[in-house]
Amino acid sequence: MTDTAANDAQGRPAKSGGKKGKKLGFFARIALFFRQMIGELKKVVTPTRSELLNYTLVVLVFVAIVMLIVTLLDLAFGVGVGWVFGGTGPTER
């Protein structure tokens, strides 16, 4: 079995990131949040132009495929409901 952080805890509660036994004040917590936020934003890598174009095309193709599937299902259910409850199709009233 591998040794992971979850296995190391052995049922003990997680240690807080602050000082031992001392709770941070309101403004100290806000300052800590902003320091952590800036640290995470420094890790962000912006994609190159070709990567961005590739990602955009993948998303557009995926959305088009899902739209096609939903349209076909909507038509199939409309015809099915029209058949079950009488009538010829979804537009008849």
From TrEMBL:
GO terms for cellular component: plasma membrane. The keyword Protein transport applies. It holds the Pfam family SecE. The chain crosses the membrane at residues 52-85. Residues 1-21 are annotated as: Disordered. It comes from the Bacteria. It is a single-pass membrane protein. The keyword Ion transport does not apply. Keywords: Cell membrane, Membrane, Protein transport, Translocation, Transmembrane, Transmembrane helix, Transport. One of its GO terms (biological process) is protein targeting. One of its GO terms (molecular function) is protein transmembrane transporter activity. It is found in: Cell membrane; Membrane. HAMAP family: SecE. Essential subunit of the Sec protein translocation channel SecYEG. Clamps together the 2 halves of SecY. May contact the channel plug during translocation. Belongs to the SecE/SEC61-gamma family. Component of the Sec protein translocase complex. Heterotrimer consisting of SecY, SecE and SecG subunits. The heterotrimers can form oligomers, although 1 heterotrimer is thought to be able to translocate proteins. Interacts with the ribosome. Interacts with SecDF, and other proteins may be involved. Interacts with SecA. This is Protein translocase subunit SecE. It comes from Arthrobacter woluwensis. The gene is secE.
